[in-house]
C-alpha cells in the first residue's frame, strides 16, 4: 500500500466542521479551514477523475485511489486557477494538487475533504475522514529543508512524466527521444523549478545530453534545445546537471533531485538566435506553469554554481530580461490566447461573433401574395435551413421520378392493351 498524507500541512489549518449531521443536513466530509492560497496535497497515489466545476463545491478534484487504498477522495472549494492537476492524470501521495479557496457554497476559505469507500464516489459510502487520516504523514515531511541556505521545494513530487505534453501544448516543436520515459539517474523528489544551461557548442546533439560524455556518463539534462528551437525530451529521471551550488529555496549542493535541467545548444558568446531564445522562454514558462510557479523558479547555472564552480552559463543571457519574458509568457497563456491580441483586434472579433455570426437575420422570402416569411436565424442557422430544404427537395425529386416511372409504366400497359384490342 502506498503512503498516505494529510491534505494540508500541520500548522496551516484548523478543523472547522466535522463529519456527520450538521444544521439539519448530513456533512459528508471534513472542513479544513486555512488561509486563502495554502497548498493542498494529494493524500494518496491515484488517478484524477475530475478537476473543475462541481455543483455546490464551486470546483473540486476527485481522485480514484481504489487500487492503492480502496477509496475515492474529494477535495473542493478551490478557485479554477488554483487547480494544478487534470483529469486522467496520475498523482502521487504528497503531490501539490491545488490551493485553498472559497468557491461555491462556502463561508470562508477552506478545503472540504471527503473519503468514499469501494466502489467509489458513485455507489460507495462516505466515511469519516478523521479516523482514515490517522497516522497520515505531514506533506512538509517530504520537502527538503536546510537550516539557513535551503528551503522548501513544493510542486510536483516524482518524475515529470508530463514534460512532452506540456511543452507541446506551449506550441513548441517537440521530439521525444527513444526511451526517454525510462532514462535517468533515479527518481525526482519535489520539483522546485528549472536550471538553465548552455552546452558550450552550437551544434551539440541531443544524444550527448541523453547519454553523457567520457567525462560524465548518464543523463545530463532532461531537455535539449537546438538552435532552430526544436525541443528534445531526453529523459524523465534525475540528471547530472547542477553540481555544487546554492540558491534560496533549494538544498545546498543538491539541486539535481529538485530541478529540471535545460541544455541549449549554444556557445554562450555569439548571442541567441530568436527562434532558440523564444523557444527557451516557452520551455521554462510551460514547466513553471505546470508546477504552479512563477518565473522566479527559473535560475541560471551561473546563478546556482557561479561561486562554487565558476560556471558562467548560459552565457550572454540577461536573466532579468529572460525571467521577465518567461513571466509574460506564463501570464499570457494563463489569460488565454485573446490576451495576445490588440484591443482593436479583440473588438473586431467580438463584433464578428455578436453582430454577424450570432445575429438572427430576418428572411427576405415573400410568398406569391407578398407576405414576408417570419423565419429568422443566424448565418449558421440559414445554412442549416438551406441544407434541410435541399434535402427535402432532393427527396421530392426522387419521389417525383418514381411517380413518373409508374405513370410511364401504366401508359405503356394501356398502349399495349389498345394494340391487342385493335
TrEMBL record:
GO biological process, one term: peptidoglycan catabolic process
GO MF: metalloendopeptidase activity; N-acetylmuramoyl-L-alanine amidase activity
SMART domains registered for this protein in UniProt: Ami_2
InterPro entries (alphabetical): Amidase/PGRP_sf (IPR036505), Amidase_domain (IPR002502), Cell_wall_metabolism_enzyme (IPR050570), Dup_hybrid_motif (IPR011055), M23ase_b-sheet_dom (IPR016047)
Residues spanning the signal sequence: none
Residues of the N-acetylmuramoyl-L-alanine amidase domain: 179-315
PANTHER family referenced in this protein's UniProt entry, alphabetically: MUREIN HYDROLASE ACTIVATOR ENVC, PEPTIDASE-RELATED
Protein name: N-acetylmuramoyl-L-alanine amidase domain-containing protein
Organism expressing this protein natively: Nocardia terpenica
Amino acid at each position: 500500500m502506498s503512503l498516505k498524507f494529510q491534505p494540508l500541512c500541520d500548522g496551516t489549518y484548523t478543523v472547522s466542521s466535522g463529519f456527520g449531521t450538521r444544521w439539519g443536513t448530513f456533512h459528508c466530509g471534513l472542513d479544513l479551514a486555512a488561509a486563502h492560497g495554502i497548498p493542498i496535497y494529494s493524500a494518496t497515489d491515484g488517478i484524477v477523475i475530475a478537476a473543475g466545476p462541481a455543483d455546490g463545491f464551486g470546483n473540486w478534484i476527485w481522485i480514484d485511489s481504489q487500487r492503492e487504498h480502496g477509496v475515492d477522495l474529494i477535495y473542493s472549494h478551490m478557485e479554477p486557477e488554483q487547480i494544478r492537476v487534470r483529469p486522467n492524470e496520475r498523482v502521487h501521495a504528497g503531490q501539490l494538487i491545488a490551493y485553498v479557496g472559497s468557491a461555491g457554497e462556502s463561508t470562508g476559505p477552506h478545503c472540504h475533504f471527503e473519503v468514499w469507500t469501494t466502489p467509489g464516489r458513485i455507489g460507495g459510502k462516505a466515511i469519516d475522514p478523521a479516523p482514515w487520516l490517522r497516522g497520515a504523514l505531514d506533506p512538509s515531511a517530504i520537502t527538503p529543508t536546510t537550516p539557513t541556505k535551503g528551503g522548501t521545494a513544493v510542486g510536483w513530487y516524482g518524475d515529470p512524466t508530463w514534460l512532452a505534453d506540456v511543452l507541446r501544448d506551449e506550441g513548441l516543436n517537440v521530439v521525444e527521444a527513444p526511451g526517454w520515459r525510462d532514462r535517468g539517474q533515479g527518481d525526482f523528489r519535489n520539483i522546485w523549478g528549472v536550471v538553465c544551461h548552455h552546452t558550450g557548442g552550437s551544434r551539440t546533439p541531443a544524444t550527448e545530453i541523453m547519454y553523457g560524455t567520457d567525462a560524465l556518463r548518464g543523463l545530463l539534462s532532461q531537455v535539449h534545445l537546438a538552435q532552430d528551437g526544436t525541443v528534445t525530451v531526453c529523459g524523465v529521471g534525475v540528471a547530472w546537471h547542477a553540481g555544487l551550488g546554492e540558491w534560496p529555496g533549494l538544498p545546498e549542493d543538491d539541486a539535481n533531485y529538485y530541478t529540471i535541467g535545460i541544455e541549449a545548444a549554444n556557445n554562450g558568446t555569439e548571442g541567441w538566435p530568436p527562434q532558440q531564445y523564444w523557444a527557451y522562454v516557452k520551455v521554462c514558462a510551460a514547466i513553471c506553469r505546470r508546477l504552479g510557479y512563477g518565473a522566479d523558479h527559473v535560475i541560471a547555472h551561473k546563478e546556482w554554481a557561479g561561486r562554487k564552480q565558476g560556471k558562467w552559463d548560459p552565457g550572454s543571457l540577461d536573466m532579468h530580461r529572460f525571467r521577465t519574458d518567461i513571466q509574460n509568457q506564463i501570464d499570457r497563456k494563463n489569460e488565454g490566447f485573446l490576451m495576445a491580441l490588440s484591443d482593436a483586434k479583440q473588438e473586431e472579433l467580438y463584433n464578428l461573433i455578436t453582430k454577424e455570426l450570432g445575429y438572427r437575420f430576418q428572411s427576405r422570402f415573400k410568398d406569391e401574395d407578398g407576405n414576408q416569411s417570419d423565419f429568422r436565424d443566424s448565418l449558421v442557422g440559414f445554412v442549416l435551413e438551406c441544407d434541410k430544404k435541399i434535402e427535402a427537395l432532393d427527396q421530392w425529386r426522387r419521389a417525383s421520378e418514381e411517380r413518373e416511372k409508374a405513370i410511364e409504366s401504366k401508359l405503356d400497359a394501356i398502349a399495349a392493351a389498345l394494340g391487342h384490342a385493335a
